[in-house]
Design goal:
two-stranded antiparallel ribbon, two-stranded antiparallel sheet, 80 residues, elongated, 4 strands, alpha+beta
Length: 80
């Protein structure tokens, strides 16, 4: 079967002109300095607007928690 009413290439291009992807906006977390999404809790440290919103260490195993605490401690030292 053949297409009865073809769209011209310019018509298809005009339709696809709105399909372009835009880049993701990101900010530096003021607490730990990791890239984070604006208006979202930082996934690394759990802080939002200067206060702790999520306890990041709560769901980690003992070994992971120890490594994360050390990482956060090191980031505080380099900040100061």
């Amino acid at each position: 079967m053949t297409v009865r009413m073809r769209h011209t290439p310019s018509h298809s291009a005009n339709r696809r002109s709105h399909h372009a992807l835009s880049g993701i906006a990101s900010i530096k977390c003021p607490k730990c300095g990791v890239d984070a999404l604006p208006h979202h809790v930082c996934a690394n440290c759990g802080f939002y607007k200067g206060r702790e919103a999520v306890d990041v260490l709560k769901k980690l195993t003992k070994k992971e928690r120890k490594a994360k605490e050390k990482e956060l401690e090191d980031s505080k030292k380099t900040e100061s």
